[in-house]
Structure formats: structure tokens, C-alpha cells
Amino acid sequence: MKTTLDPSSLLTASQKMPDTNRSQRDQKSLKKTCQGFEAIFIQSLFKSMRKTVPDGGLIKKNSAEEIYRNMLDQEIATKISEKQSLGLANQMYRQMEKKLPSS
Q: What's the chain's average pLDDT?
């Protein structure tokens, strides 16, 4: 059985949804976006801090180690923005929440 979905009917259906659901979804989406921005900011801080550490030591750096370190920094930055937060995401959320359509 093949089912086709018409994009215009989906848009119409989503517009008919109660505003409370849309408002809650918008708030959750905004909060997640603000946390994502904060995570990117934290990751760039890590990258800048790592540049200050001079190369050298017993083991030479290779590209695999750099990729792993970048992935680790990204994950740590994401967890910091979700759990501890620097407050940047909350401040951005409070400012942008005023621009959301009211329900």
C-alpha cells in the first residue's frame, strides 16, 4: 500500500493545531537552539585554549588524535551546555522568548 503526503495539506494541518502545542514546541525548539549555540561557543573556547598549549612531548601528534580530541571537546561542550551551562543559553532564551508568537 503506497501512501503519498501532500505538503500543502500537512502545512494546513499543522496550522490548525492548537496554539498551546505550537507555543510549547516553539519554546522547546528555541531553548534547544540556544543550548546548541552555547555548545558551539564552549567548543570554540576549548579550541582556542588548546592552541595556547605548546606542541611537544614524548608522542607526536597525528590527525587521528586531533579528530578524537575535537570530537571529545564537542561532546563535553554539549554536556556542559545541557547540564551546567555558562548562562549564555538562558540569557539568549529570555531575550528571544519575547519575540515568539504569543498563544
A: 81
